Amino acid sequence: MSAVLSPASVQDIAELRQLYFEVYGHGYPVPLGSDPVVMRRLITDGGAHWLVARAPAGDLVGSAVVLTEPGGRIGKLVGLAVHPGHRGGGLASRLTGAVCDAAFATGLLDSVYATVRLVTEGPQQVVVRNGFRPLGLLPNAVEVEGCETLALFARYGDGVLARRAPVASVPDRLSALLSAASHGVGIDYTRTRPAPCRGAAAPGDAEPLELVAAPAFVRRRFLELFPAADDRFFPLHTPNAVLVAVDGRFEAYADLDPVAGSCALVAVHPRPSAVAGTLEALIASVTRAGADYVEALLPLADTEALEVFLASGFVPSAVYPAMRRIHDRLHDYVVLSRTSRQIDFRTTAVSPLLQPYLGAYLSAWTTTYLPLHEVSR
User: Fold this and answer.
1) Against a cut of 0.85, is the pTM above it?
2) Which residues of 249-273 are buried (b: 16+ CB within 10 A; e: fewer)?
């Protein structure tokens, strides 16, 4: 007899915490599976679609969540867990499909994305069977059982990809990534041409930045500088730190997570390209704060900002077509990442669907970090 799926309730929290512990041990870096205050808020405030699975005997044996945020049209699949004693019967796939169907049924989402561990191919197969498409790799993105690479996947609502705004040109270093996406997502990037390099500022000996890690203050300041929802776009990330140039010319807002060893650059005031020449100092600051991995999400059409980050050692890792809705069109974004740890793909289970993205990443990394004569040899 199969497990019964139902919406999570506050009464499930204790059992859910036990489930996540049995599945992940102490290594699960997301408070959704360990912090009862966060779990209660997600269950009660309407910010999540959360399903649990119970065996015929009544034991809680599975969980899956799609996180959303008010006004946002993107969800994130997180917290997929199946008790070790109930694997192999397709429960993970059932949970994934059901929770995503519930999220899309509201009519409020254009896409749902997932960052999938690559310890085995199983999680990749689960999301692909439920309509997710591969978008790229995030090398060294999280500390779970050691430093792990994640894969980015997304599932789209009906007709969303057909309403993408075209991008005329991108920096040449993104060409391999877009080629991989053309196969993985089934969209046409052949009309997007390499843009001539305009000579972004190279890394310099910039003065150290000031890092302010005061979450409440940072959120207030962030909302002062970006008062309108349309002015800020990094779905499901809230800044808890800000890096300030000593001359005041920019403020870079970050979601800094020392437990996961990661940092997401959420926004830069007055514009992303303002960090030109100072990204080495920024990387040094967040590394001292405990983040070995830094990522930035930029519009695929923002060639100026892309060139600034590429010039400072960021590597194009994933592309998210039709990520942001503006009026009746959807715009593509790209994830650029940089890691201070050695990347080791030897134990990473990269499925055939992700192989083109692995090749694209290795090509871009080689171009960034190996001298031309070494590449030619």
Assistant:
1) yes
2) ebbbbbbbbeebbbbbbbbbbeebb
